[in-house]
Amino acid sequence: MKKITLWALSAMTMLAGCSASEVSSLVEEAQASDLISGAVYKISPYSDETRSMFVRNASFDEGTEIVAWTDTKVNAQRWRLTKDPTGVYFYLTNVYTGKSVHIQSPVSLGARLRQYGKENDYTYKWTITKAEQVGPDCYYISPSSLASGERLYLEIGGGEDGTNIQSYIKRTGDQADKQIWKLERVQEAPNKFTSVMRDEIVRSWKAQYYKKSQNNAGYTLSDAERLNNASHQWQDAEMFEIVLDAYETTQDPSYKEMFHQLYINFVDENQKNWLYNPFNDDITWMVIACVRAYLLFGTQEYLDVAKENFDQMYARALMLPEGVLRWCEKEAERDKTNSCINCPAMVASCYLAQATGDENYYEKAKNLYEKQSIYLYESSTGMVYDCVTLTSLSPWKWASTYNQGTFLGASLMLYQHYKDALYKTNAQMTARYTIEHFSDDNGILNAPDERSDNDRRGFKGILMRYLRSYINIMDDTQYLPWMEASALQAYNNRNSKGIIWTVWEEKSAENFVYKASDKDVRYSNDPWGTSTAVSIAVNLPLIQK
């Protein structure tokens, strides 16, 4: 046994709240451990190695519970073991959050685990001793403090994800395995979003949702029940745009073929003229996808379809004398204009100008921008309003990630063409408002209004491509750390299939069910709400550090 001075023994006794004889016993057990201080480990219950110790929802918040969850190979489920200054105890620090495992104080039977940032008292110190009767890499984990002179051991509760980890006296018989943990050393991964993570997210999403359509016309990202539902055409269009984003940022030719197969299926289901759809924004989203595809791949059909549909949509939707576009052709909606039609129409018009060389499309975009700024934009803050009824002129002052994104995109495109400083200023204000308004206390994207509503689930995926444009066009990287932090949060909350629900601040369930306040949302066959993580993965500029 290594020599320990009386001074060190006295200090350990004070910190651990134990008698000298108890500390001596703990030192003997700690010395038997072959764990490496500073190394990173996966900590799994011996009774179920498919799960591991996890900071609930990968949260950075002080006091977050430490639970057991199906292992997804992310840093929020990895722990750095570091010996305390005495060399007797270990700190267990989460690799993702940087915070350490703490046991409730006063320590008692059933005491649970939480994470906190400090490491200066006995509630953070752990003895880890071999469970040699079981096998290699198997251990008991005990808080350094004792309850009534009796050692406590960490044990797992039930068998479901999210079950608590708590302390209890030594168990025997059939219950003994609950207190045995397997510590497997793993390679340390930095908290940096990488191309490997990006490709994992896209590959998992594609494997889950990209299926051969029943009519054999192509491939679809839509559930079969939705293929003929016009109200979901825009969701398909925006997921097609994510495929284009992936091509733009990776130059992987497989995305070119993927888009073409999706286009074939879309046209087979919806034909080439979409004016039967009363929602003008639905038409415009697919116009953007098609004209972007033309600019990337040169396929003339994409441009022809985009131009025909945009021109007809614009002619029927233009509201005079106001100069904005009608959102929907249904009688009850004919006096209403929305940002979700004006802003995408500006983007589509700019793309058409680039594709055709026709300056009139830029003029259309410029005119729409001027009117949008009057009715649905707050230039002093950068907030984009949602909609307004022109007979009352009282806008709904609700901001959403997708309206912020498309107005940002239009500002950037018009600035590139006209070089007017107004567009640059608006782009800067809009980006700033978006980051400030849609961030939680940890500086990570949070859009609580967009969680469970069907259309809103995919909104922030649209924002991501325009933030990428902002960073690249403005050569302004100040929001890059925000994007990366949000991408890492999403990645750390993936499920074991690699699928990430749009609520990035919560762990994606293994059964593909999101427990919303009003109803359960099932997304095993619905890619829309999981496409947002794919969007940030492919749109985040990867800068080598």
From TrEMBL:
UniProt keyword annotations, A-Z: Hydrolase, Signal
Domain Ricin B lectin: 55-116
GO molecular function: hydrolase activity
This protein's record includes keyword Lyase: no
Keyword Signal: yes
Pfam families linked to this entry: Glyco_hydro_76 (PF03663), RicinB_lectin_2 (PF14200)
Leader sequence segment: 1-20
Domain of life: Bacteria
Name of the protein: Glycoside hydrolase family 76 protein
Organism: Bacteroides zhangwenhongii
